[in-house]
Amino acid sequence: MTTLDSAYDHSRLDGVRRKRMLAFLVDFTCICILWLIACVVVGFLGIITLGLAWLLYGAVFPIVAVLYSGISISNRSATPGMRAAGLIFRSETGEPPSFIQGAAHVILFYVTVTFLTPLILVISLFNSRKRLLHDMLIGVTVENA
């Protein structure tokens, strides 16, 4: 790991923590708008299926969040919020991020925030690449574009 860190261009990490907070706000807003649209669709499907589709309401937000992050990260190496903040998503291997990495990133983010809220942020203060806990778990770095 030290060879990767010593060869890494740390100037690409200036202001990343602050930009990630802005990116989260933009992405969360986009996900909530898509979630509301999906809830309306599920509501109409519930009418057509005599209430059966309404059982999907509990799964709508996670599905929207996973699809939003997975598709946007795999297609453009960043979510719309990350692009607005000038950030990109890089895997440790140098390969473009996959849908699975984008989906795992958002799933691990919400799981770790739920159970370890302060720890995911504190960890970024003590590692050289300013990565959060869920970044380390899937082997990615978020850096300036």
Helical percentage: 55-70%
**Count of DSSP-assigned helices:** 6
Low-confidence stretches: none
**Rounded average pLDDT:** 87
Keywords: Membrane, Transmembrane, Transmembrane helix
Main location: membrane
Pfam families: RDD (PF06271)
Membrane topology: Multi-pass membrane protein
List keywords for this structure.
145 residues, mainly alpha, two-stranded antiparallel sheet, 2 strands, 64% helix, elongated, transmembrane, RDD, membrane
Write the SSE topology.
Blueprint: H1 2-6, H2 16-48, H3 57-76, H4 80-84, E1 87-91, H5 99-122, H6 133-138, E2 140-144
Antiparallel strand pairs: 1-2
Helix pairs in contact: 2-3, 3-5
Report on the structure:
- It is elongated, with a radius of gyration of 17 Å.
- It has helices at 2-6, 16-48, 57-76, 80-84, 99-122, 133-138; strands at residues 87-91, 140-144.
- It has a two-stranded antiparallel sheet with strand order 1-2.
- The protein is mainly alpha-helical and 145 residues long.
- It starts with a helix and ends with a strand.
- The chain crosses the membrane at residues 21-48, 54-73, 107-126.
- Keywords: Membrane, Transmembrane, Transmembrane helix.
- It is a multi-pass membrane protein.
